[in-house]
Amino acid sequence: MSKVLLGACGxxxxxxxxxxxxxxxxxxxxxxxxxxxxxxxxxxxxxxxxVIVPPDVTPYKRGLHxxxxxxxxxxxxxxxxxxxxxxxxxxxxxxxxxxTQDVFRNLGIxxxxxxxxxEEAHSMQVIEARGTKFGFLAYTDPFNWTLEGGGGRVAYFxxxxxxxxxxxxxxxxxxxVVSLHAEMEFNPSPSMLKVxxxxxxxxxxxxxxxxxxxxxxxxxxxYGNSLIAYSLGNFAFDIDDYMMTAxxxxxxxxxxxxxxEDGKVTNWxxxxxxINEKEGRPYRLDEEKRSEEEQYYSYLDSIVKDDxxxxxxxxxxxxRYLKMYLEEALELGVDEFIRHFGFRVFYxxxxxxxxxxxxxxxxxxxxxxxxxxxxxxxxxxPFDVKA
Length: 387
Known about the structure:
It contains 12 helices and 16 strands. By secondary structure, the chain is an alpha/beta fold. The chain folds into 2 domains: 302 residues, 4-Layer Sandwich (Purple Acid Phosphatase, chain A, domain 2); 65 residues, no CATH class. Strands 1, 2, 5, 6, 13, 14, 15 and 16 form an 8-stranded mixed sheet that branches. A 6-stranded mixed sheet has the order 7-8-9-10-12-11. Strand 5, helix 4 and strand 6 form a beta-alpha-beta unit. The chain is globular, with a radius of gyration of 22 Å.
């Protein structure tokens, strides 16, 4: 087998000004500043995070959706396969999901993580390049926008099912890639839960694991012989007020290039980019800015190589999320909080990432104090709230 180059980029959305600019200036406009990078790999994969609106559907106002003509941008950029399993794929219902899938298929771009039924959504897509057969599986956490809806048309992540699917499909291909839309947003480090999930997928046979959804980049690690990219960040995205809450990191973008030889990852590197805040499209950096980005991404990579540092950073994220939800509870009142936020906390994997962290912090205190034996005060005195 010859050496093969796989190219991967993060979240792509034409929601916002980019779709209007494409209509005005043509389909090459979206990626003209980075087309040299996009044409470089033998296989190009990305996460398409805006659904194409079907002609007979009125789109939900708060969704990420786009007109059909933007699909040509992705064809001209050279995308071979797109992950559609994400938290916005049902923004126009299951009609939008199937329509988006059909549009890309008719244009010659494979899709993964969705389908007309559960079997298709969880099926592996195969692409061969230079004699090497690549298999692609895609999953998404159940999020607050999708719940676990879609009638089986979305591949929702379940660790045991994903492991079984990896083990079943790995013997059929030379390289198995898992694309995972998961976890909380805007954090520079992954949750320990996601790290655990990804490492278990690697141990089960996944050669490359590509994660997205945080909208900011996270580190990359080689785990055994497997490459895990914990978040590819944004690639083309509307930097609206929400995205600006994590500025400038939501504008930090890159392409990941992975070299494969004889079915094994032999090397990887990034090409650093930035997203234009007014346009929502990526552009290349000059040498000075590239050097600055190199330092920042090296810092991100160092985090995922140090489990102790990673865990402590994760705990801080978990505390922040707990504070946010407690403030929501105080503002809404108990009944309204249960109605609007209770299901998120107790049922959605998206939020289990931070709930699991809070549970670990509670476990620490419990194990430290559960066998307290004091001569003159009760055992739970360390837990007394100080007046």
